[in-house]
Amino acid sequence: MKLYGKLMNKNMPLKINKVENLDSNLDFHGQIESLFIDLCKNLDIPVPIWLKKNTRELSHYKKTFFNKEQFIEEVYFDNFILEIEV
């Protein structure tokens, strides 16, 4: 499984990163959680608040968006886009 993260500001990409899971001992939820935290560390951003809309979007479209309001700390970008490749 791979997760792609993209930080966007005014529709322009600022940073793009990818993480891949090589540990198949975790269940699907565990893999996503682990990769999500690693991706945020690699992009040097705080982990955003995960809402029900993020779960719905990820399950339907394999993509979800986090806006500034979903971060507790101040961030320098408008959106964080998360995509999954199974």
Radius of gyration using CA atoms only: 12 Å
Strand content: 25-35%
Strand order of the largest sheet: 2-1-4-3
Q: Portion of residues in helices?
A: 25-40%
Number of helices: 2
Order of helices and strands: EEHHEE
Q: Structural class of the secondary structure composition?
A: alpha+beta
- Assembly level: single chain
Question: Runs with pLDDT <50, length 5+?
Answer: none
What general form does the structure show? globular
Largest sheet: 4 strands, antiparallel
Distance between the termini: 4 Å
Number of domains: 1
Number of strands: 4
Write structural notes for this entry.
The protein is of the alpha+beta class and 86 residues long. The protein has one domain. Helices cover 30% and strands 34% of the residues. The chain is built from two helices and four strands, in the order ββααββ. It has helices spanning 28-43, 52-61, and strands at residues 2-9, 12-20, 63-67, 79-85. It has a four-stranded antiparallel sheet with strand order 2-1-4-3. The longest helix is centred in the middle third of the chain and has 16 residues, at 28-43. The radius of gyration is 12 Å and the shape is globular. The mean pLDDT is 94.
